[in-house]
Amino acid sequence: MTHLKAGDRAPDFIGTDQHGKVVSSQALLGGKIVLYFYPKDDTPGCTAEACNLRDNYTELLKNGYHVLGVSPDSIKSHQKFSEKFSLPFPLIPDPDKLIIKSYGVWGPKKFMGKTYDGVHRTTFVIDEKGIIEKVISQVDTKNHSSQIL
User: Fold this and answer.
1) Is 46 one of the catalytic residues?
2) From 46, 53, 132, 139, active-site residue
3) Could you give the CA distance from residue 106 to residue 31 in angstroms, rounded to a whole number?
4) CA-based nearest residue to 40, from 119, 112, 129
5) 112 within 8 A of 16, measured Cβ to Cβ
6) pLDDT tens, residue by residue, 105-142
7) Would you tell me which CATH number, out of the four given (3.60.21.10, 3.10.450.50, 3.40.30.10, 3.90.280.10), belongs to the domain 14-148?
8) N or C: less crowded end of the chain, CB within 10 Å?
9) pTM value surpassing 0.70
């Protein structure tokens, strides 16, 4: 669904994570970024994805990746989700959907016969210069880190 593809410049972003720390794409240049967008904290698929990234976080770090999650949930929701599952990486609340829309992952979805707007689970692997290396739109929530590595 996103308009972005491998080889495109990743849109710049800035946000505040669940701990109140400012996170920006510009500050992360020089390192690789795994920027994953997910629909909602503490739901089955989103929890499986976050926990898979958590369980393989050391391996991702060894390969030079900074892991960042983004959803439209509030900072309070991110704090609870992060604490409940001991997530070691930043989660950026984007209730205004500025980052979500700049990456083109907001749009129509279907669930149980109903159509609604929501976040399309998508991961962007971004290189040290801010160029998208890979777009993963068919996320395997239980094995997501292997899709990245």
Assistant:
1) yes
2) 46
3) 26
4) 119
5) no
6) 999 998 888 999 999 999 999 999 999 999 999 999 99
7) 3.40.30.10
8) N
9) yes
